[in-house]
Amino acid sequence: MKRIAVVIPCLNEELTVGKVINDFLRVLPDADIYVVDNNSTDST
């Protein structure tokens, strides 16, 4: 069985990262989603 991982790098993406995650989950519901924070200063 193949698995898909989605890696989302972010820097101060508090306002949009949730939408990006939801968009990926809509088209890839079984994917593993990893959000990698690059030293954000907001609540990413």
How would the blueprint of this fold be written?
Blueprint: E1 5-10, H1 17-27, E2 32-37
Parallel strand pairs: 1-2
> What best-fitting shape do the alpha-carbon axes yield?
elongated
State the distance separating the first and last CA atoms.
Answer: 32 Å
What are the low-pLDDT stretches, counting only 5+ consecutive residues below 50?
A: none
Radius of gyration, in angstroms, nearest whole number? 11 Å
The SS-based structural class is alpha+beta
| Total number of distinct structural domains | 1
Determine the mean pLDDT. Answer: 95
Structure overview:
- The protein is α+β, with helices and mostly antiparallel strands and 44 residues long.
- It has one domain (5-37).
- Helix content is 25%, strand content 27%.
- It has a two-stranded parallel sheet.
- The chain starts with a strand and ends in a 7-residue tail after the last strand.
